Amino acid sequence: MNLDQALITFIAESRELLEDMEAALLRMEGQGEGDPETVNAVFRAAHTIKGSAGLFGLDAVVAFTHVFENVLDALRDGRLAFGGELAALFLECGDHLQGLILRVEAGELDAPPPPVEAELLKRLRAFLADEGSKKAETAPPKTQLPREKEASVRPLGGNGVQTDHWHISLRFSPDVLRHGMDPLSFIRYLGTLGQVLHVQTLSDALPALTEMDAESCYLGFEIAFASEASKAEIEGVFEFVRDSADIHILPPNSQIEEYIRLIHELPEDDLKLGEILVRCGTLTDSELTRALADQRAGEEAGAARPLGEILVESQSVQAPVVDAALDKQQQIKTQKQQETRFIRVDADRLGQLINLIGELVITNASAQLQAQRAGLSDLIEATSSMARLVEEVRDSALSLRMVQIGATFSKFQRVVRDVSRELGKDIELIITGGDTELDKTVVERIGDPLTHLVRNSMDHGIESAEVRRARGKPATGRVILNAYHDSGSIVIEISDDGGGLNRERILKKALERGLIEPGHNLSDREIYQLIFEPGFSTVDQVTNLSGRGVGMDVVRRNINELRGSIELDSEEGKGTTIRIRLPLTLAIIDGFLVGVGASSYVVPLDMVKECVELRGEDMAKSTKGYLNLRGEVLPLVRLRELFDTRETAGGPRRENVVVVGYGDMKAGLVVDALHGEYQTVIKPLGPLFSGARGIGGSTILGTGDVALILDVPLLVRVASSHEPALTA
User: Fold this and answer.
1) How far apart are CA 642 and CA 655, in angstroms?
2) Helix 253-264 to helix 36-55 angle, to the nearest 10 degrees?
3) Check: CATH 3.30.565.10 for 404-583?
4) CA distances from 465 to 146, 219, 423, 486 (A)
5) Which partner for 151 in 198, 435, 511, 539 could form a disulfide, CB atoms 3.0-4.6 Å apart?
6) Residues 369, 362: contact at Cβ < 8 Å?
7) What is the pLDDT of residues 319-360, one digit of tens each?
8) Structure confidence by residue, pLDDT tens digits, 588-602
9) Gap between the Cα atoms of 580 and 445, Å rounded
10) CA 252 to chain CA mean position, Å
């Protein structure tokens, strides 16, 4: 991987981490507290971004994230209390980091920092200063204690040393003097590495005077030692008596936090517990060797124990440091598991694969046609098997681009939070159906329309707390995002429990603007659809969010470009639901091929309900624009008239109706011939045909001819509401 590719990966991973960080911060803000697991997740995200940015020399990202990380560390250690002000600051820091990543992506590495950075750093450091001053106020001044008391140590116990100095516990073997070693010489040599503050001599092992051996050593020592030396350097002082003495060296309390920090900063390597502790400096190689030997001895005796338990019990390492190392080990293990499950693929390569499979579908259709014309049974069977395999490959390739819409929905937690504060309303967001999948291309293009609709629901839909209480509603408004599959499409619903739409007000505004003729009877659904007309607005006062009549028409246009549709249901005083229907994918679909004269058309197969042949009385009724389908009135669309298709020689021998459904509406498409199911590769229409309505795209048949793909949702609406002609 070259540097450019690595940088692209860093940008993508940083965005994912910032999204996860924002979601975690919003959860913390909603709960009003920072639980340790969530705070650790936010800290890890910031730390990972800082570490990766350092690899690329992104000093601006590293410098800002370092200060941000210090405040997170204080929160994680309980030195700061979580509150609304801190949550808002963290969210702003996440936004700023997002901006810095965008600068990296744009190549603006040397651009001066934006003015907001200085303000954010000032606020972050203010929290650190407050934390430092509170710590100083609560800590007793050292001058109040005598020197002997300050330097004293407690005996080694469950929590180890309780001072800000090294604690060295020495128990020499009785034969140390016979081996020519003077215990006091080791204590004196310690003074070359630092300052021996206090020595407590332990005489518990002294026997009775009559039993004492003058050449044996019975004394133990507890030493308080101040030094900047490492644990390995201090252990080196006792190199010559290591095998004939029991030695424990514990770091000061202040250094425990440093060890834990070093553990968190270790690279994401597959390390064992002992290796982690040795790397951070809290454990020496000899201590690890002895602990592993004790562990093996226990296994041989049938009493196996974890290494961490042995290290804590032998007082080689404090329990908090072992816990931090175990957490690091688990974090690395989890990350490795995720890395083995997923592989990052460039979107352009995936798009190229989909295009090639589309060409394969077209070529396979041609091969099947040639096999049928040749009449060779073996060839027909072979092409049929190949068609089945091509279909499986197609479905597998398309599934690679399918993503859950929940990630897109989750981004609106921040939108709802910010907009509700700007409006002075208390609004909660409820998300359901987040595991519903659709094409990544559709997800990327649906974000802006959804944002506008959610903001519109909050601004126009949800009433103020006073109005809601007066109407007997809870003071907190609700916006609901829901997604589900229906008839081969995905449906996204944006609902609110606000005041709903005022039917009469919309109708009056539409008459004033000449959008409808006076006396024209419209259903409620048709009236509500008027809000999607360009420049339409019923708001008297323009706000920062809406009121200019710009946006809803753009939303509908964006949805239409995705071959989707938008519907609206509302009940005044109860709320509004906007329903968006979208295709699952924009690339390849299963279609139903029909013929009208010499032309061919493709109907999306998931919208086809049934096919009916027109005969006798039904033929006469069809000329009136409807059909009695088992007691149900079925509106008809005659494709020959709609697209002005010429008759073939001798005229059609019969007519058929393809019954299609979209949502809760049905219509019949009158065609000449039914050619059956057909895998369709959707090709977009060129700009020349941008004004043609009723056509959603085109495809190439096995014969090499072009067939048009019908826009069934629009045709169904036209047939059901008797809209004017479709063609521009």
Assistant:
1) 15
2) 60
3) yes
4) 62, 77, 11, 36
5) 198
6) no
7) 777 887 787 777 777 666 655 566 777 778 888 888 888 888
8) 778 899 998 888 999
9) 13
10) 41
How is the chain split into domains, by residue range?
A: 3-138, 148-337, 347-401, 404-583, 588-721
Helix (H) or strand (E) holding 694: none
What string of H, E and C letters represents the secondary structure of 46-102?
HHHHHHHHHHCCCHHHHHHHHHHHHHHHHHHCCCCCCCHHHHHHHHHHHHHHHHHHH
Predicted TM-score (pTM) of this structure: 0.62
- Bridge partners for 637 per DSSP: 669
Q: In what order do the strands lie in the sheet with 166-172?
A: 195-202, 220-226, 166-172, 245-250
pLDDT recorded at residue 540 = 54
Instruction: Provide the Cα torsion 156, 160, 163, 165; round to 10°.
Output: 90
Among residues 119, 1, 10, which one has the least CA distance to residue 61?
10
Structure tokens at 442: 């559709």
Superfamily of domain 588-721: SH3 Domains (2.30.30.40)
Residue with the larger pLDDT of the pair 371 and 721:
371
List, in sequence order, the alpha helices (H) in 457-502: 465-470
Alpha helices (runs of H) in 375-411, residue ranges in sequence order: 377-400, 406-410
Mean pLDDT of 494-512: 88
Residue 615 has pLDDT above 70, yes or no: yes
Q: Are 680 and 608 in contact (CB under 8 A)?
A: no
Q: Which of the four CATH numbers 1.20.120.160, 3.40.630.30, 1.10.10.10, 2.60.200.30 does domain 3-138 have? A: 1.20.120.160
CB 494 within 8 A of CB 481: yes
Q: What's the mean pLDDT when you consider all of the chain?
A: 79
Nearest CA to 410 among 11, 18, 14? 18
Closest C-alpha among 147, 247, 250 to residue 197:
147
